[in-house]
Design a protein that fits this description.
The structure holds two protein chains of two kinds.
Chain A: E1 7-12, H1 16-26, E2 32-38, H2 41-50, E3 55-59, H3 64-73, E4 79-84, H4 89-98, E5 102-105, H5 110-121, H6 129-139, H7 146-156, H8 161-168, H9 172-186, H10 191-201, H11 206-209
Parallel strand pairs in A: 1-2, 1-3, 3-4, 4-5
Helix pairs in contact in A: 2-3, 4-6, 7-9, 7-10, 8-9, 9-10
Chain B: E1 7-12, H1 16-27, E2 32-38, H2 41-51, E3 55-59, H3 64-73, E4 79-84, H4 89-97, E5 102-105, H5 110-121
The chains are: A alpha/beta, B alpha/beta.
Chain lengths: 211, 134
């Protein structure tokens, strides 16, 4: 009997050692074929335009959501999986909403990584178990508006209400009322707690904080 | 006793894909020999004592400075090469000042990592320039 065609997988990561590790990992998987290895999102798009894989595994260092929307614009139908060192619940939520098929931590055992790729290749979504609990709680809570998110991000960067007001073209009083709504939605009492909660759950990205 | 000139290397990192990648690169080098993989700080310390590697390569997701300190406290003499993320300048200088023998950015090609391992194994340093301590 002829075995079914293996799923075709593309991997993108900026780090050569990680790319090498993926090559090794797919080497002895008969049902998964590594058809391409990319170092940037540009390379992913070029590759997909020529020969679209079933699944693209994208490193968390790369702008995966931008990549996803570019692929969609070009009508390229490969499923996107994001593999990251740190997975914030909110980032997972946002990515799934944007159409990412799977999210996974790079610290997971190799069997888990491969299982996740298979799940996604079969057209299902994959998130780690601990994330599914977060997501269930998350959808029963009110979400932050994009304005509230911008205020929270600015708070996390250490800006005062006045500075936030200036950069978002709103009054200091409006900033304060946004801040109070953020506190109540995140169930915290002050800025510090709000910023901590925001970092932990991935509302604000750490990379912008330490730039 | 190992064959003459072969450098025994221990890999320490909590990411299986990165460990696999590094292991593959090391196996392609005739003069380097990967002897084990540690997946946490505690494992790294234990394996260093048991296996007595010449060089341990520690990924920056583990606490490099603490590992170096504990190795030196236990009088383990292996050389330490740290793999670091290319962006974080502040944490880079912390790593460089922690007493490691070599530091390589993860963005560098594998040849650089191999070069760093060879350099520290010979007793030299392989460190980037960092600004003065603040």
């Amino acid at each position: 009997m002829q075995s079914p065609r293996p799923f075709r997988v593309l991997v993108a990561d900026t780090y050569p050692l990680v790319r090498e590790g993926w090559r090794r990992l797919f080497h002895d998987q008969p049902d998964l074929e590594l058809v391409g290895v990319a170092a940037s999102t540009r390379e992913v798009i070029t590759f997909c335009e020529q020969d679209c894989p079933d699944v693209a595994i994208i490193s968390g260092h790369l702008p995966a959501l931008e990549l996803l929307s570019e692929l969609n614009e070009r009508g390229l139908k490969c499923k996107v999986m994001v593999v990251s060192l740190r997975l914030g619940g909110e980032a997972v939520h946002r990515s799934l909403q944007a159409g990412v098929s799977g999210m996974l931590s790079l610290t997971s055992p190799t069997e888990t990584l491969l299982d996740a790729v298979r799940t996604v290749a079969h057209g299902k979504k994959y998130v780690p178990d601990e994330m599914s609990r977060y997501l269930v709680e998350r959808i029963s809570k009110p979400s932050l508006t994009s304005r509230e998110q911008a205020v929270l991000q600015a708070m996390a960067e250490g800006q005062s209400n006045m500075e936030i007001g200036k950069s978002l073209y709103i009054s200091e009083g409006t900033v304060k009322s946004h801040a109070n709504r953020i506190f109540s939605k995140l169930e915290v009492n002050d800025r510090t707690q709000a910023v901590l909660a925001a970092i932990r759950s991935g509302w604000v990205s750490e990379t912008t904080l330490f730039r | 006793m190992q064959s003459q000139g072969s450098v025994r290397v221990l890999i320490a990192d909590n990411q299986p894909v990165l460990r696999e990648g590094l292991n593959t690169v090391l196996m392609q080098q005739p003069d380097l020999k990967p002897i084990g993989q540690a997946t946490s700080e505690a494992e790294a310390l234990a394996l260093c004592q048991w296996l007595q590697p010449d060089v341990i390569v520690v990924d920056g997701t583990l606490h490099v400075a603490r590992i170096v300190k504990r190795l030196r406290k236990r009088a383990v003499s292996c050389k330490v090469v740290a793999l670091v993320e290319p962006v974080a300048n502040r944490s880079l200088s912390v790593v460089v000042r922690s007493g490691v023998d070599g530091v390589v950015s993860l963005k560098e090609p594998p040849e650089k990592i191999v070069e760093a391992i060879r350099t520290v194994a010979k007793g030299s340093k392989y460190l980037p320039e960092v600004g003065p301590a603040t």
